[in-house]
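User: When convenient, might I ask for sequence and structure tokens for a protein?

AI:
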Amino acid sequence: MSPIPPTISVPPSSLSSDTYRKRRPTESQDEFRLAAKSQLETVTTTLEKYLDSVADRSSDPLYLALKACVEVLKQTHQHYLQPSEDPIETEKRNRSIVIENLPESSRSLASERVDDDYSHIKKILDAADIEVRPETVFRMGERRAGKVRPLKVILPRVSSQRALLRQTKKINDRPEYSSVRIRPSLTEKERKEQSASSTRREKAST
């Protein structure tokens, strides 16, 4: 006989309806996800402890049913309870590009190096025949000797970002920009997935 299933005590959410009304939608959603995550972990841990105590695991229907429930809970946690991205950040990212392999300026003053980066962007926009002034241009990461940091460019419109991405071949046709790579700005999850995919391709080719 299977042990009696445990009584699961789920702590009440500390988030009141007033909290949701006062905060931005993404803040409310993220706090809800955090509360739900804590409760979900409590339920999952309790069920796993119960499953570990079951002796006959091959034919006990209750064990099999609860095991399936635990798997569903884990998948829910993994796919649906991750913090959402701020819509403002999403909109900004959608009109941004990242330029890789663009040589960095060696001038001593920071302002001069920034001017050189802006000069490159002007030439790239001219090559693409896009009439727009970037909102922001900056190097990503810390400056290190022998390392070329990616250059991030935030454009004023999504349409400008898409137009620039369509003109990458024309930009690469210029000798000074033949080795640069222009791509969309990615989320952390997308960067990790891209890195994992690249690693798999490298392993497959060896």
About this structure: DSSP finds eight helices and four strands in the chain. The CA atoms of residues 17 and 205 lie 55 Å apart. The beta strands are 96-100, 136-139, 151-154, 181-184.
